């Protein structure tokens, strides 16, 4: 994917082009009381092209598929030429470089079996419901995803970052004598171990 983005940035007719693309993959589990409500896979791809030409303004165009990239570059360049400026914008040159911050495979959300994620939500829901006789409802939502971001420029900069993200959210409701109280709590973490320990 990085090579396709870099080739599109280098082929841009603008004096400067940068392309940012983010791909997210993950799972969402929702448990209401002791009942599993849903298990869903989340998939999201989105990108942005920005172009600048001397004497003109920035132009940008969003895209959701790498196949749409040539058209997005063309539209961003055309948009950049639509508004002349009185004073040209000048960018500081950046030296060409490549950098990667990759997530080790064993730390990725996909390394944790779905059965273990389901077990965690079940244990948490049971613990909430058993905490007090007045608890009438408990909702547990577990979410994880791997976010991969790629940034390339027409000057030869290429950066890749992978970020694992784990979230566990809880809602608990208690009722007594017609009065209902709710409490919400959550944790966002970079590792499965942090969520499990919480």
Radius of gyration: 23 Å
The total count of strands amounts to: 7
Contiguous runs where pLDDT drops below 50 for at least 5 residues: none
Overall pLDDT? 92
Q: Please work out how many helical segments DSSP would assign.
A: 4
Sheet-strand content, in percent, reads over 45%
Percentage of residues assigned to helices: 10-25%
Keywords:
single chain, 198 residues, alpha+beta, seven-stranded mixed sheet, 7 strands, 22% helix, elongated
Please describe what this structure looks like.
Helices cover about 20% and strands about 50% of the residues. The protein contains 4 helices and 7 strands. A hairpin with a 2-residue loop joins β6 and β7 (about 180-190). The chain starts with a helix and ends with a helix.
Describe the protein's topology.
Elements: H1 2-10, E1 16-32, E2 35-52, E3 58-63, H2 69-80, E4 97-101, H3 114-130, E5 135-153, E6 157-176, E7 179-189, H4 192-197
Parallel strand pairs: 4-6
Antiparallel strand pairs: 1-2, 1-5, 2-3, 5-6, 6-7
Task: Summarize the model shown.
With 198 residues, the protein is an alpha+beta fold. It has helices at 2-10, 69-80, 114-130, 192-197; strands spanning 16-32, 35-52, 58-63, 97-101, 135-153, 157-176, 179-189. The longest helix is centred in the middle third of the chain and has 17 residues, at 114-130.
């Amino acid at each position: 994917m990085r090579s396709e983005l870099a080739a599109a940035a280098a082929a841009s007719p603008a004096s400067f082009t940068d392309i940012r693309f983010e791909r997210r993959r993950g799972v969402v589990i929702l448990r209401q009381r002791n009942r599993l409500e849903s298990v869903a896979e989340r998939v999201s791809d989105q990108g942005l092209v920005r172009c600048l030409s001397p004497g003109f303004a920035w132009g940008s165009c969003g895209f959701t598929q790498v196949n749409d990239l040539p058209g997005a570059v063309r539209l961003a360049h055309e948009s950049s030429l639509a508004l002349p400026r009185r004073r040209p914008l000048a960018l500081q040159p950046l030296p060409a470089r490549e950098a990667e911050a990759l997530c080790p495979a064993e730390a990725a959300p996909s390394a944790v079996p779905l059965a273990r994620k389901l077990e965690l939500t079940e244990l948490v829901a049971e613990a909430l419901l058993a905490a007090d006789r007045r608890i009438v409802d408990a909702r547990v939502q577990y979410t994880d995803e791997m976010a991969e971001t790629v940034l390339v420029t027409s000057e030869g900069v290429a950066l890749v970052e992978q970020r694992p993200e784990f979230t566990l959210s809880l809602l608990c409701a208690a009722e007594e004598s017609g009065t209902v109280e709710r409490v919400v709590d959550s944790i966002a973490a970079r590792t499965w171990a942090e969520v499990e320990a919480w």
